[in-house]
Amino acid sequence: MKNPKTDATQKDVNVTGKKKVSRSVLLGAAFLMATSSIGPGFLTQTTVFTQQLAASFAFVILISLLLDIFSQMNIWRIIAVSGLRGQEIANKVLPGLGVVLAILIVIGGLAFNIGNVAGAGLGLNAMLGWDPITGAVVSAILAIFIFVVKEAGKAMDKFAQIAGIVMILLMLYVAFTTSPPVGEAIVNTFKPEQISIFAIVTLVGGTVGGYITFAGGHRLLDAGIKGVESLPEVTKSSVTGILVTGVMRVALFLAVLGVVSKGLAIDPANPPASVFQLAAGDIGYRMFGVIMWAAAVTSVVGAAYTSVSFIRTFHPLIEKFQNWVIIAFIVISTVTFAFVGKPVTILLIVGALNAFILPIGLGTLLIAAHKKNIVGTYKHPIWLTVTGAFVVVIMGILSVVTLIEQVPLVFK
């Protein structure tokens, strides 16, 4: 005869275990998205724009964060409700569109992953004095190891969380040591002395552009978190990811602002490294190495995982051996950097094309949100549709401008 008390206890244990797993996955997805966006480009962009705009850059950060949140909340919710990945949704909206989106994502992810691998090599060079190519190869091996272990998803979640927390703590420490004019920054957050549209577009593209905007949503789907009932958790996870990115961006901004406000000269050859060295001497430079390495290697993992998630549904073999395809993706990026170097021309071309991915991806998913054959009886909130459409229009127009500006530079 069954013991009701024992059965009840076992049920409680199962429920508690499920909650812990869900919380871990939700946090992992948030950090995967955040650390994917915090790469070498993130560090350089934030430093350079703070130099140019000083305290007014606070306004740029605020606006870009709002646009990021509107983008992420829409995309993550629609992926969760439909139970489909981005390319599957796109193919249902317009046959073949998913293939186009997947090609753009994979090409962009591969090209930028070469830059991420290079950044990891430079990080180990600053941290330990290693040759950048050796550092890149060692970093790639670590990234590959994550996908070799049996529970690759859990390993990826944990790695992203630890790396993200380390980066934030080190960045906050450096920001504190530079004693930035916080009051001036707060005032300029809402009443800027100057506004740069280009900076806003660059930040939005760097934070939720390309593969990044789909990273967390696809991770949640792979973990089985989907359906209308999961929307509160999905929304919380998407906002958490943007806020983690925001904290990192604000901390770096304040660190640079502190250096700039003191009239210290930042080395244009390596702006972020220069800031850390000016703020905390040789120790600061080593800290920069840790942050650069963590930012780059987590971006390597995020780019490879998300890019492959866009093609895994196209053939049963890719689905079956997805971890090995991810590993191949990382190997190709590393070999290209080691033997060819950073392909500037490719990065410029793909950078221009990558600008289209956010408006195409978000626009497609907004259409899908109102199709019963994709989301069933789910009613997408009007305020999310309106704010999402606003992001699509703004980023669509500005991506065309970016393409027009970039193509002549490539063929000069």
TrEMBL record:
Keywords: Membrane, Transmembrane, Transmembrane helix. Pfam families: Nramp. This is Divalent metal cation transporter. InterPro entries: NRAMP_fam. Its main location: membrane. PANTHER family: SOLUTE CARRIER PROTEIN FAMILY 11 MEMBER, TRANSPORTER PROTEIN. The chain crosses the membrane at residues 21-43, 49-70, 93-115, 127-147, 159-176, 196-217, 238-260, 290-311, 323-340, 346-369, 381-404. It is a multi-pass membrane protein. It comes from the Bacteria. It is found in: Membrane.
